Amino acid sequence: MTPTRGYHHGDLRRALLDAAVEAIGESGPAALSLRDLARRAGVSHAAPAHHFGDKAGLLTALAVQGFDLLAWTLRDAGDDLLAAGVAYVDFAVRHRAHFEVMFRPELYRAHDPEVRAASDRAGGMLRDRVAGLPARDGGAGDPGRDALAAWSIVHGFATLWLAGALPPRVGDDPREAARHVISRLVE
Amino acid sequence: MTPTRGYHHGDLRRALLDAAVEAIGESGPAALSLRDLARRAGVSHAAPAHHFGDKAGLLTALAVQGFDLLAWTLRDAGDDLLAAGVAYVDFAVRHRAHFEVMFRPELYRAHDPEVRAASDRAGGMLRDRVAGLPARDGGAGDPGRDALAAWSIVHGFATLWLAGALPPRVGDDPREAARHVISRLVE
DNA sequence: AATACCATCTTGTCAATGGCAAGATAAGAT
DNA sequence: ATCTTATCTTGCCATTGACAAGATGGTATT
Questions:
Q1: How many Å separate Cα A126 from the centre of its chain?
Q2: What is the pLDDT of residue A21?
Q3: Is residue B100 within a helix (H) or strand (E), and if so which, with residue range?
Q4: In which residue ranges of chain B is pLDDT below 50?
Q5: Mean pLDDT across chain A, nearest whole number?
Q6: What pLDDT is stored for residue A130 in this prediction?
Q7: pLDDT (tens digit, 9 = 90+) per residue, A114-154?
Q8: pLDDT digit string (tens) for B11-45?
Q9: Which DSSP symbol is given to A132?
Q10: Percent helix, strand, coil in chain A (nearest 5)?
Q11: B51 Cβ neighbours under 8 A, 6+ residues apart
C-alpha cells in the first residue's frame, strides 16, 4: 500500500492522523498514546513530535480536519434544515473520532487560528440552513435563537447517541431516529 | 476541618471524590491523576487503590454520585418541563465535573449496577416532566419522541455551553439562555 | 559535481503515572 | 489477650510524554 520503505516515511503526517482516528475509534481520545500511533505507523516513538510538537498539536490538526469535514458534509446536505440536521448526526456517527475531539477543547489548542477558521466555516453552514426556517407560528422567529435551538438538538442527540445513553427503543439507525427528533422542532 | 491526624485518614473515600471534582474542574477528566488526588488528600500514592481499585473505579463512584445529584435536582425543579430543562442545564454548569464524567462511559464502568440504577432514576425524572407536555398542534404527541427531543435539546445546549463552543452573543447566564432555547421547543 | 542546508526520523534519557505486591498500623471482634 | 480485618505505606515495574542530541537523505546553491 504505502511506499514507506526508506528512512523517510513519505507521508507520516497523514499516516499518524489516520492512525489516530483508528485508535480513538477503539478507545476514545483520552486513551490516545503518541507512542502507539508511532508503532502503528512503523516509526520510532519520537517521530510524531516533529510533525505535531506534542499530543495537543496532533489533536489540533485532527480538530481542523474534523471541522472541515463537517463543513463539507453540511454543504453537501443541501439547503433543507432537516436534511442538514440529519447530516450533522450522521457525521458524528461516521466520524466519531473527529467529533469527539472537536468538542473537547481541553484536549487541543482551540484558539489556534486554523481551528477557528474551520470551526467558523462549519458554523456558517449550519446558520445558513437555519435561515431557511419558516418563522414560528405567531412569533417572529429570532434566527439566532432558532439556530441555537437547532444546533442544540442535533448536537445533543448526536452526543447522547455516541455516549450510548439512549434506550434501545430508539433503534439502531441514527439517521432515522434523528429525523424523528428534529422534526419535533421544525415541523 | 477534617480530623485526619492519625495513620488512618478517617474519611478518605469522600475526600478523594471531593478532590476529584476539584481536579476535574481545573483540567478535565482526561488529565485526572490518582497520585494527584492522593497528594491533595495528604495520603500516599497507593491509598486510592484500596477504596476504588483503579481510576475507572473512582470515576464510576463519581458517575453514581452525579446521576443521583441530577435526579434530586430534577425532582426539586418541579413538574414543569421548561423548569426541568433549565435545571438540567444548570446542573451541568454547576456540577461540571460530574456531568463531564457521566456522559463519557469509556472513562468508567457504565454497566455497573449502581450506575444503571442511578442513571435510571435520573432518566425517570426527566421522562415524568415530559409527560406533562401538551400534544403538539395537529399530531398526536408521541411521548417517547417528545422526551428524546427534550433531552436532546437540553443536553446539547449544556454540552455546547461547557465546551465553550457557543458565540459570545448568547450571553453569560446559562439559565436565561437555556430558557430561550427550550421555549423554542415547548412554546 | 561538490558543498551547504534543512526537513525528517532515530536513539537515549528523564520525570510522572497507573497498577501491583508486600508490609505496617490501627480498630474491632472473639 | 489474641485474632481478624480494614486501612494506609513503601517499593517496584512498565508505559507514557517530552526533550536533547545525533543520524539520514533530499534539495538548493555554487
A1: 13
A2: 98
A3: helix B96-102
A4: 1-5, 138
A5: 91
A6: 84
A7: 999 999 999 999 988 887 766 555 455 677 788 999 999 99
A8: 999 999 999 999 999 999 999 999 999 999 999 99
A9: T
A10: 70, 0, 30
A11: B12, B13, B16, B58
d(CA B19, CA A103): 25
CB atoms < 10 A from the CB of B22, how many? Answer: 12
pLDDT at A77 over 60: yes
CA atoms of A154 and B100, how far apart (whole Å): 19
Number of Cα atoms under 13 Å in the Cβ half of residue B161:
29
Cell of A56: 495537543
Q: How many residues does chain B have?
A: 187
Distance of CA B28 to CAs A30, A63, B22, B73, B133, Å?
10, 18, 10, 23, 36
Closest partner CB to B151 (pick from A144, A160, A177): A160
Contacts of A101 (CB under 8 A, 6+ apart): A24, A29, A59, A62, A63, A66, A107, A108
Amino acid at A169: R
**Residue B133 pLDDT:** 66
Residue B105, φ and ψ in degrees, nearest 5 = -65, -20
> Which chain A residues contact residue B152 at CB under 8 A?
152-154, 156-157, 160, 181
Among B124, B76, B78, B122, residue whose Cα is nearest residue B98: B122
How far apart CA B140 and CA B129 sit, in angstroms, is 18
Mean pLDDT of chain B: 91
Q: Which of A153, A166, A183, A185 to mutate to test the interface with B (most CBs of B within 10 A)?
A: A153
Amino acid at A66: G
Contact check, Cβ <8 Å, B185/A187: no
Reading the block at residue A11, the C-alpha cell is 507521508
- In the complex, which nucleotide's C1' lies nearest to the CA atom of residue A10? C8
A55-76 vs A81-94: helix axis angle to the nearest 10?
A: 150
Rounded to 5 degrees, what are φ and ψ at A6?
A: -65, -165
The pLDDT value given to residue B134 = 63
Dihedral pair phi/psi, residue A80, rounded to 5°: -70, 135
Residue type at position A162: L
pLDDT level of residue A4 (50, 70, 90 thresholds): very low
**Angle, CA A95 vertex, CA B30 and CA B25 arms, to 5°:** 20
